């Protein structure tokens, strides 16, 4: 009876699939159910080719291929520490740190940071910098530009690229994205008159530069003419320049010095090692027209140890330099070639880093040609004693930057959180 009820349910159930004949074993005998007739036949089934899977069945082998990012996302929400007993203990991270990590992983997709509080932006920049987001070829430049256009000198106020011509060639667009620099050291980079970075010096983005060091860069009168053209013609460009170093550029002559007379705010000038013909006439001309007096002793403004990279992106510049140095290391597949060249006696070509050395013959010929203004107090004192002499002076510098940022806040460029707002944010 139970068998008949089960068969009737199976026969009368609605099914959209053709299951074929149904076989039932009862009392040791195999019965076939004929769905069309609705009866049961006690017959031996015909031999049919048996297939375990249908023709449309497919198998895909899935392996555990979790990348580092997926693995980090599982543990990134926790902080792992150890107790006094040596047991592993973990605690959940704050919501603010979680959001900060997520945005820093996708920092290149930010539309704009203008109007964003600078305290949070600094933490966001540090988080992206720790992930080396600014070293990536395309996305790094796009992310860096979002910070520089919104925060200017906070990202970088001083940049030292002395002897780093490889960093300039590899990260030229990133360097050009920095705005509102006050100090720029390009000494011993052999840039020449036609380099794109020298042309960028005349742009409005670098009109804030007050200290420019161009020692030993193969400059000539033509390069000075291009560099000073915006100041001479449009009263723009490097109009706020206070300190200028053009030493060890033998191609600069008396004609090129005439272009420097447009820098009316210039307080200190170094033209030692240049190709001047009439030194006395140049000294008299600089004193009469822009008030620069020839110094009898070397000025410590041109010590080249005073200019340092300062700002949020200080570690970013170091990451660029490390990446360039890693790329310069010899590869393993080139060792056999070097051995073959050594065996056959061919001269091995070695590209050495350009070292900044004073041009002794030119310097001895022209002597020490450093100038300063007498009516400017402490012009010829070392800058390192003024800027980095003590922690108190550093704090004064930070306060000065804070005052500048408050002025920019009034222009609605970006906001500055109050102490109460910052404490409230840290509670999340």
Structure, explained:
This is Leucine-rich repeat-containing protein 42. It comes from Tichodroma muraria. Belongs to the LRRC42 family. The protein is an alpha/beta fold. The protein is 39% helix and 11% strand. The strands form 3 sheets. A 7-stranded mixed β-sheet has the order 6-7-8-9-10-12-11. α3 crosses α4. The longest helix has 20 residues, at 391-410.
Order of helices and strands: HEEEHEEHHHEHHEHEHEHEHEHHHEHHH
Shape: elongated
For the biggest sheet, the summary is: 7 strands, mixed
Number of E-type strands: 12
Termini gap: 69 Å
Task: Estimate what percentage of residues fall within beta strands.
Answer: 5-15%
Uncertain segments are: 347-354, 358-365, 381-391, 408-412
Using the CA coordinates, give the radius of gyration.
Answer: 37 Å
Mean pLDDT: 77
- Find the structural class using helix and strand composition: alpha/beta
Quickly count the helices: 17
Strand order of the largest sheet: 6-7-8-9-10-12-11
State the gist of this model.
The protein is of the alpha/beta class and 428 residues long. The protein is built from 17 helices and twelve strands. A seven-stranded mixed sheet has the order 6-7-8-9-10-12-11.
Topology (SSEs and partners):
Layout: H1 2-12, E1 22-26, E2 29-34, E3 39-41, H2 68-75, E4 78-82, E5 88-92, H3 95-105, H4 118-130, H5 139-151, E6 158-160, H6 165-170, H7 172-176, E7 183-185, H8 196-200, E8 211-213, H9 221-234, E9 243-245, H10 254-259, E10 268-270, H11 279-290, E11 292-294, H12 314-328, H13 335-343, H14 360-366, E12 370-373, H15 383-387, H16 391-410, H17 419-426
Parallel strand pairs: 6-7, 7-8, 8-9, 9-10
Antiparallel strand pairs: 1-2, 2-3, 4-5, 10-12, 11-12
Helix pairs in contact: 3-4
């Amino acid at each position: 009876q139970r068998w008949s009820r089960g068969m009737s349910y199976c026969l009368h159930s609605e099914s959209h699939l053709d299951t074929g004949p149904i076989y039932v074993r009862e009392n040791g005998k195999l019965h076939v159910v004929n769905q069309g007739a609705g009866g049961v036949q006690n017959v031996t089934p015909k031999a049919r080719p048996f297939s375990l899977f249908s023709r449309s069945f497919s198998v895909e082998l899935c392996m555990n291929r979790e990348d580092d990012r997926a693995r980090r996302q599982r543990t990134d929400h926790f902080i792992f520490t150890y107790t006094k007993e040596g047991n592993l203990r973990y605690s959940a991270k704050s919501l603010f740190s979680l959001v900060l990590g997520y945005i820093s992983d996708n920092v290149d997709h930010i539309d704009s940071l203008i109007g964003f509080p600078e305290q949070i932006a600094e933490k966001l920049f540090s988080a992206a910098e720790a992930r080396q987001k600014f070293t990536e070829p395309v996305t790094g430049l796009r992310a860096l530009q979002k910070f520089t256009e919104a925060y200017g000198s906070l990202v970088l106020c001083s940049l030292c690229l002395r002897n780093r011509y490889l960093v300039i060639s590899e990260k030229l667009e990133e360097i050009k994205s920095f705005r509102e620099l006050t100090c720029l050291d390009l000494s011993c980079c052999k840039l020449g008159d036609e380099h794109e970075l020298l042309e960028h010096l005349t742009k409005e983005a670098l009109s804030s530069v007050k200290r420019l060091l161009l020692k030993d860069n193969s400059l000539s009168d033509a390069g000075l003419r291009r560099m000073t053209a915006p100041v001479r013609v449009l009263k723009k460009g490097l109009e706020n320049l206070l300190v200028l170093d053009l030493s060890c550029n033998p191609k600069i002559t008396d004609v090129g010095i005439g272009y420097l007379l447009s820098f009316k705010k210039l307080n200190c000038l170094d033209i030692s090692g240049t190709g001047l013909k009439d030194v006395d006439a140049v000294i008299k001309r600089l004193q009469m027209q822009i008030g620069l007096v020839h110094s009898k002793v070397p000025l410590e403004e041109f010590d080249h140890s005073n200019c340092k990279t300062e700002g949020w992106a200080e570690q970013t510049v170091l990451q660029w330099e490390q990446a360039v140095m890693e790329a310069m290391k010899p590869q393993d597949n080139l060792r056999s070639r070097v051995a073959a060249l050594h065996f056959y006696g061919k001269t091995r070509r070695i590209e050495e880093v350009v070292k900044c050395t004073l041009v002794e013959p030119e310097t001895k010929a022209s002597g020490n040609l450093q100038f300063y203004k007498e009516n400017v107090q402490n012009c010829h004192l070392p800058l390192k004693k003024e800027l980095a002499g003590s922690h108190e002076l550093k704090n004064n510098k930070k306060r000065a930057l804070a005052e500048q940022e408050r002025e920019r806040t009034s222009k609605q460029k970006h906001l500055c959180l109050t102490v109460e707002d910052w404490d409230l944010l840290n509670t999340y």
